[in-house]
Write a structure and sequence with these properties.
about 140 residues; about 20% strand
């Protein structure tokens, strides 16, 4: 397992799927190459002082180490965005949270409507609630 280090990789993963937990947000994205699983960690400044942010990052790294690589998909990138609750959350619970978040990322996307108002088959969905139509 490798680490993500470049900003462009973090931004690419941010556009992928995400799963929220109390202690962190897990973002994931499939890569087109045949490289190993890569994991990145980030904690924003609003989560506390530098020592608190470093402690959050250390706890997230240890959670990843303790979760079997079986739960992670090959050729994927993952980013854990730490939250302040990661400082006080029970460690075993964080491991369970990560396993369930990885399972949620693997689920197929729902087949609802997209932003254009059409479903995947190209059919129009319900009319706009304010009665206006778009070209």
């Amino acid at each position: 397992m490798d680490r993500l280090r470049q900003r462009a990789d973090f931004l690419a993963v941010a556009n992928g799927a995400r799963a929220n937990t109390t202690a962190f947000v897990l973002q994931g994205r499939r890569r087109d190459d045949q490289g190993p699983i890569r994991v990145g960690y980030t904690v924003t400044k609003k989560n506390g002082t530098a020592t608190e942010r470093n402690r959050i990052r250390r706890r997230l790294r240890e959670v990843i180490r303790r979760v079997d690589a079986v739960f992670m998909r090959p050729h994927h990138d993952y980013v854990l965005v730490g939250r302040r609750d990661a400082l006080t959350r029970d460690f075993a619970t964080m491991i369970d949270d990560l396993r369930s978040a990885l399972r949620r990322l693997d689920r197929p996307a729902p087949t609802g409507t997209n932003k254009t108002g059409t479903n995947k088959a190209g059919n129009k969905s319900a009319p706009n609630p304010n009665g206006m139509t778009r070209p």
